[in-house]
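Reproducibility note. Readers wishing to regenerate the assembly model reported in the main text can use the exact inputs given here. Chain order matters: entities are listed in the order in which they were concatenated for prediction.
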Amino acid sequence: MRFKKPIVALSAACLLTLAACGGSGGGGNGNGPGVDTSNLGNTGNGQDPTRQGPVTIEGATKGGTVTVLTSTGFTTPIDPTDLYYTDTNGIMTSLVMRQLTQYAYDKATGQMILVPDLATDLGTHNDDYTEWTFTLRDGIKWENGDPITAKEVAFGIIRSYDQETFVNGPGIYYTNPYFLEGDTYKGPYTGNDPDGTKQHAVTYDDAAKTVTIKMAKPFSDFPYYASMPAMGPIPTDPAISDPAKYAQHPWASGPYKIDSYVIGKSLVLSRNENWDPATDPARTQYPDGYVFKGGQDPLKIDQILLADSGAGQTTLTYDDVQSQDYRKFQNDHADRLVIGGSPCTYFYALDTRTVKDKAITEALTWALPYKDQILASGLIPDVNAIAATNIMPPGVPGRTEYTAVEGHGPFETDTAKAKQILTDAGLLNYEIKFLFRTDLDTDVQSKAVLTKSLTEAGFKATPVPTTVADYVATRDNPKTDINVRSYGWCSDWPSGATWIPPLFQSTDIAKIGFGTNESAFNVPAIDQKIADTFKLPSAEQPAQWDAIGKEILTQYLPVVPRYYTGVAMIHGSKINGMYDDNTLGTPTFRNIWVSQ
Amino acid sequence: MALIGGGELIELEVESPTPAVEVAGKSPAQIAFARLRKDKVAVLCFSILVLMVLVAISAPLIAKAFHVYWDISDPNAPNVGDVVDFDGYPSVGPPYHGFTWDHPLGVAPRTGADNLAWLVYGLRTSLFIATTATVLTTVFGVGIGLVWGFSRGVLDQVLGFITDLFLAFPFFLGLLALVPIITSHYATNVDGLPRAQLFALLSVLVVLGWMGLARLIRGQVLTLREREFIQAAEVIGVPTRQILFKELLPNMVAPIVVSLSLSLPAFVALEAALSFLGLGLTGIPSLGKMAAQATPYYADYGLYLWVPVGAIALLTLTLNLLGDAVRDAFDPRTRR
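Running the prediction on these inputs yields the following structure tokens for the assembly.
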């Protein structure tokens, strides 16, 4: 899953998310930011295929309008098929759009649980997970009162094949690789097939209200993919669902409908009277409406919420609190501070085409100024940047705790040890070439800190300048003359299958570049193991993904995990039910209500 | 020879001047400086200014003496984590901890850069930019003003038009447009960027800062060029260049010195303002940039903001008061 805002967020101050890392919570002044994060992003076995609506929250009252302020977020497309960023996903799937499945917040464990949405259960599959069938509920309706049909759900799913029309969407990662004909069928628009009749993967039966999807290879995690907006209904009338037009005003099937929408600027939602709570096992409809405002000054957001007066009391933000304001919220307004996990890992990927010696990565593991870089970039250690060990963040099923480099503690920097390793390997003054953005202050600071530490450790540090605008393209270009790349990756759902294959499966560098394998890791034995794991029964897969990850990190070490992300979001005193949706690192919009 | 009127030869007795009390000839400049020396405010301001210039010049020595570093990548600088707490506030010195000689003015939140080092190096940047810009604008302004005032006809009109054009040019808009262009052009050239930014900043300050002085000088030239000594020089064929620089320029020392002393503080303030807006220099300490970084922390860490703001205020106040004193001293109409 992509971050709220891909480029800026990815590096800069990473206004992204949270988490916690057991055991390391300390901080200064005896009021350090300790957070229990051993379960970050853990939806683990949290599935409840039988849950039914309606949902009622004890003590919740109807009414009030919730204002949501954000500085970086909410700038990406909201057409369901084109929607693949964490913040818009959280907002749209919780409030406006319905899919085959969805997540519900479980207060007892603080985790998200996969429950049915438009479908009556989490789907039924054949023995080898290559065919999934979902039965739709009765009483599901569009905002205009028309019933949602199996044909419309099928059309929505077929739309996700069209990766040329929906360049931002998740289809390229899941529909095309997994679904039948994913490599040949180009989708309704690019493939000039407006009715979706030229494909044979997605079939429906309007009378029986079923939708069936055939896969090209086993896809045991499909119910998780089915929670994304791309796996929901789209009106089949081309006049309505034309991509350019529909992106401006997607139809609502959930509790709120869109009154007005300007990308990156504002989104106003009001009650959708045609949403029937009895058909929905997770959503609620307490507030009268929502007003989202983008492009806000982060300092101002904090001040509004700190003051907590007037409209500020019904305001919330899904941006992280500024580090300098964290102490105030923690000490005086702890009840309005929402801390939790978000399933992302930041790491440095070493280019294995040129970095051949494992000693280099090992020395780098000791040399990196983890905490200094986090502080210099405005993050809060142990709150929204948590010491990483396993490449997969806590909460991914099957994940075990291990350290890739023997004896390396959380956030531990030991330049002397790094120098010793380099000296022993005869690699003193090995050149580390990394990118930094000259027009991003936090990146410049981070570069200064990294340079100092690398030099101390006996590396030759060569920062390569680029700009915010060119950063991602330069980094993802395999020909760029650098050998260390900073990368962040998030789970799309809690499964090792969203970590190990995208990050370590070999790609054809000459033809498609890194893909998301930024270390150009290419070990045929590992590729084979990945392919084999997909064929295992779903119960055995989690442990196997972790085993492969462990093998890669302990034997090859192509990456140095830096930190897991977390969130530290704040809200006004009249906002209730705001928890951390740790599958995304966004507020649990489904549960929010306003005190009257 | 016939004498008309039969008069006598009159012997003119020329009385030799009495070598009375020595009236030492004093140039206007000497008079002005004599007045300045008696002006307590001027003397005080001048002393403070000299002190600040000394501090700026010896910035490396001061930083070395206190073991402080403005560049956090300096091998001897403390690690960020050693001086900064989990929420970015310093874990040594103000605002939450006692005074320490390791960092007499505290450290910057988040990065842990030393404030004293930033102050002395920032002072250096301010004074360097202000002085260079002042000297350059004065050279351009005086040169163009002289030619403009002395010329007639087409050249006069052309220069007048150019001056008006530059005066009408929206200064901040120009900078706002220019800086991103330069930055993006040099963004991938780490060595070239600081030089390009310095050049851009100076050229903008100069290109858009000479007009006032040029008009002032032109006005002076207009009043002087009809005076006898200039007309005489023209009649006997003195080259124009010589008239401009030997006859006219020395008569304009007063307005030039006054303009110089008043534009220095203006440029100091302008550099700070531009850096505050992110249009100044990057990669080197600047008081304006420091102030910009400090504003989010003002409520809890006032010192961080007061250090750069205080330095800018003191510098501009000193220069302004000194400039006023200079103007008064050079103005013959001033009675003290």
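We highlight two features of this model. The domain at 44-330 of chain B is CATH 1.10.3720.10 (MetI-like fold). Chain B has one domain: 44-330.
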